[in-house]
Amino acid sequence: MGATKVNNKKKSGEAQEAPLKGTWISVSVVGAVIVLTYFLLYGLYMARV
């Protein structure tokens, strides 16, 4: 039974890797949108000043 528990942990680790990759991509996309918005607004501000 101990070997079965070790195998289950490996499978759980593999299953968790895909959602973490998706989370990383989502966070990166949101961060990129925030940075692009910042530079766009900064550019508009500088154009008016």
| Global geometry | rod-shaped
Q: Poorly predicted ranges (pLDDT <50, ≥5 residues)?
A: none
* Overall pLDDT level: 82
Record field, number of beta strands: 0
Number of domains: 1
Annotation field: number of helices: 1
β content, as a range? under 5%
Q: How far is the N terminus from the C terminus? A: 72 Å
Structural class: mainly alpha
- Whole-angstrom Rg: 21 Å
- The helix/strand series, from N terminus to C terminus, equals H
Largest sheet: none
What's the layout of helices and strands?
Layout: H1 2-48
Index terms:
49 residues, rod-shaped
Can you characterise this structure?
This protein has 49 residues and is mainly α. It has one domain. 96% of the residues lie in helices and 0% in strands. The chain has one helix at 2-48. The longest helix is centred in the middle third of the chain and has 47 residues, at 2-48. The radius of gyration is 21 Å and the shape is rod-shaped. The mean pLDDT is 82.
Question: Brief description of this entry?
Answer:
This protein has one helix at 2-48. With 49 residues, it is mainly alpha-helical.
